[in-house]
């Protein structure tokens, strides 16, 4: 993202760690550029009750790259909502995470979502799942359009 000069937005869930400290802040292994924008949310949906949609439209963004956690909640919702809101989405295949549930392991949940969300579409816009080693900021969506 930094090398591509992309707009970098971190969306944080205020329900995590009561909205402060470790768990809420961006992991210390992630390089956060000075230009990064932080948006705090109270719902699973990153677009609900936040300025995210307005920001992306103001910046004329039409493709977003998504990574983070929790796969089956925030990530799934962000990908699906973004396509409805008019964005092509690249989900980082090995860039989202979760924890085991009572039914599935974290590994199974991630694999399921990678399979389900690859090619998820809402008529005009859709999501693709790509490996972190690829040039994620060069969207490949157009080669799949009619």
TrEMBL record:
Keyword terms, alphabetized: Hydrolase
Record-given protein name: Isochorismatase family protein
Claim: Kinase is one of the keywords in the record: no
Source taxon at top rank: Bacteria
Sequence similarity: Belongs to the isochorismatase family.
Pfam family, one: Isochorismatase
SUPFAM superfamilies: Isochorismatase-like hydrolases (SSF52499)
Keyword flag Nucleotide-binding: no
Domain Isochorismatase-like: 20-100
């Amino acid at each position: 993202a930094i090398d591509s000069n992309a707009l970098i937005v971190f969306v944080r869930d205020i329900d995590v760690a009561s909205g402060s400290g470790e768990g809420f802040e961006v992991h210390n292994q992630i390089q956060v550029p000075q230009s990064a924008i932080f948006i705090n949310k109270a719902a699973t949906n990153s677009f609900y009750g936040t300025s995210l949609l307005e920001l992306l439209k103001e910046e004329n963004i039409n493709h977003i790259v998504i990574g983070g956690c929790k796969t089956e909640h925030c990530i799934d919702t962000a990908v699906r909502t973004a396509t409805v809101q008019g964005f092509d989405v690249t989900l980082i295949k090995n860039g989202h995470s979760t924890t085991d549930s009572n039914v599935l392991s974290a590994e199974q949940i991630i694999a399921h979502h990678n399979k389900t969300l690859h090619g998820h579409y809402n008529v005009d816009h859709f999501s693709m799942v790509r490996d972190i080693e690829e040039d994620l900021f060069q969207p490949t969506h157009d080669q799949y359009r009619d």
